[in-house]
Amino acid sequence: MSNLLVKQVKYFGERYSYISPTLTSGINILEGENGTGKTTFSSLLYFGLGGNVKWFRDDTSEKHIEITGDKSNYVEITILINNQIYIITRYVYKFEVNIVSPTDVITLQINRSVNNIFTFSDWLLGKLNIKVVEIYQGTEFYKLNFLDLFRLMYHDQITPVDKIYKRPDNENYISDSGIIRKAIFEILTGNSFDDYYNSIADYRKALDEQTTIKSLIQNFEYLNVDSSTLFEGKNSYNLNLDLIEFTSQINKLENYRESINDNVTSIKTSTEILSQKRQKFSEYEEKVFSLKKEKSNIVLEYSRVKRVRENVILEVTHLKKIIITNENLNLFSPNTCPVCLKTANREPEKCICGNEVSDEQYQKFFYTKEEYFNILKSKQKNIETLDFALKGYEDDIKYLGEKISAFESRLEEMRGEINQLTKGRRVIKNIELKEVNDKILELEKTISQIRQQIKIELKREELEIKRASLGTKVEDYKRIMDQKKIESSKSMDEIVKSFNTKYLSLMTKALFDCTSARISSEDYMPIINGGTYKEASSNVSKRLMYYLTLFHLSIVDKIKFPKFLLIDTPENMGIDNNNFISTMRLITELGDENHVIEEGQIILTTGLNKYPTEFKKFIFQTIDKKNKLLTKNIFDIGA
């Protein structure tokens, strides 16, 4: 597996600068007094790798004065990945990095956006042979980046002592959720978990796409160009047949219209036309009567539902008053007198009035505060449902009203035509022509609607084909996801077993009264002495041994953890000096007869002489009040 090795950390500005000695594999220690720059060193390294260091920002109350007050300042990190050297430069405070390799120079953005598809994190993970993984949480997709994984490589000071993972730079319900933390551990330790999480993301995306397509198809019923059943259930093939039929009818009507114009006398007699008109008029009257009856029934139902809604609103208002009153008077108690509202000394199995009653019968007449809130939510939900129903009724009433108005308007026209015919006027030819023209216009309108509906149906059919394809895609992704889950679970069982073995060995030596130590197979969090261990200082060892165990597994079991640890001043977390030194000595127990610490790198910052004496050889720099990490620049302007 790939490993990350930091060779050098540099800082340059107009006022201050710093150049670290060359770091090596194995243990590297920076010792110094408090306030001399130990955390600054860790922060510079973290910042150079893309991290967000709040005290490097000028818009925070806890500023690093030397850095925020400097100008043209930047951090330069020299790293080695798989024996390939890279120099990473990041200006303060910029969200891009410049990467120099022996063969190329590139600039990458740190933050991901629509335009920044490939980020510095993607580049770094690629070099470490770790796939970029998407995590699906709720309705959001979250891409794990290098800084997420670095939360188990950077043992910092500001994270609460009872936590394991370093705090995320942008802490929210997604970035620090249990799902994300679990994924970080699994990707760093389980060699097939990146494929598993990506298979989950593929499956969820396919499901979302399938849901979207399904919703689009369902919405097509509202796209019919009129509200009649003319096109209901017809596909594009049958609609094209209708188009041919109506076009043929128009041609026949146009020929018929020409024959009327060519003949002096009408083809039809007055009696025939009058009879047809009266029959049509009667049909329209029946239709109007039927529509009015239907509208009347809906109006009655609308009024009924509206009254129900008003009653529910009154109940909601009453419940709110009860809840508000309880906040001040604490009324929700079965032992409160309903008259004076004072506490009543009620005997068991008796009512306040003194009559015998079982407690079960008595309690059912009182609601708890939580029950009142649940009732309120239920009532409010009922209002939403009733509003939706009322909206449907209103739409139906409006639609029927418009339809009745259209039919009544046509009835008036027909009444006038019938009156003209009964008065004996010889307008048969004109009436006949008008009927033909009206019919042609109606057919032309229908043809226009059919053509529009054909376009809609072709799109619907296209989506149906896509939905069928997505159905197969979803099944394939689910099969792959299930397979990856089985493979990953088997791998993780072995990892957890190996982790527990080493973790127990380290913890029993770090804490004199530790009898058991393991991690949960559910969330991989440590459980000490069966979960009963309470001593606050134990959290220092519990967290530090967790990180050391991961490092151990990375050099022994070849997991994806990049064999790198950055540990910043752990003795400041409440552990006494002797115990801390003893705990630090456990670093030498990492690895086995075939694998040694020098296969990875541990960078440790600590106080003066706060380390085992045998670690003296690992110190790469000592800083104090007179020789702080950042030094002022001195410019030689000549004689």
Keywords, please?
639 residues; alpha/beta; Rossmann fold; Helix Hairpins; 7-stranded antiparallel beta sheet; 5-stranded parallel beta sheet; 16 strands; 51% helix
Task: Write structural notes for this entry.
- With 639 residues, this protein is of the alpha/beta class.
- The chain folds into two domains: 304 residues, Rossmann fold, CATH 3.40.50; 184 residues, Orthogonal Bundle (Helix Hairpins), CATH 1.10.287.
- 51% of the residues lie in helices and 13% in strands.
- The strands form four sheets. The chain has a seven-stranded antiparallel beta sheet. Strands 10-13-14-3-15 form a five-stranded parallel beta sheet, with helices on both faces.
- Helix 7 runs antiparallel to helix 11 and helix 8 packs antiparallel against helix 10.
Low-pLDDT segments, ≥5 res: 360-365
State the total count of DSSP E strands. 16
CATH topology of the largest domain: Rossmann fold
Give the CATH class of the largest domain.
Alpha Beta
Total domain units: 2
Write the CATH architecture name of the largest domain: 3-Layer(aba) Sandwich
Let me know the average pLDDT: 82
Number of helices: 13
Distance between the termini: 56 Å
The percent range for strand residues is 5-15%
Structural class: alpha/beta
Given the C-alpha coordinates, what overall shape results? elongated
Output the strand order for the largest sheet.
Answer: 7-6-5-4-1-2-16
Quick summary:
This protein has 639 residues and is an alpha/beta fold.
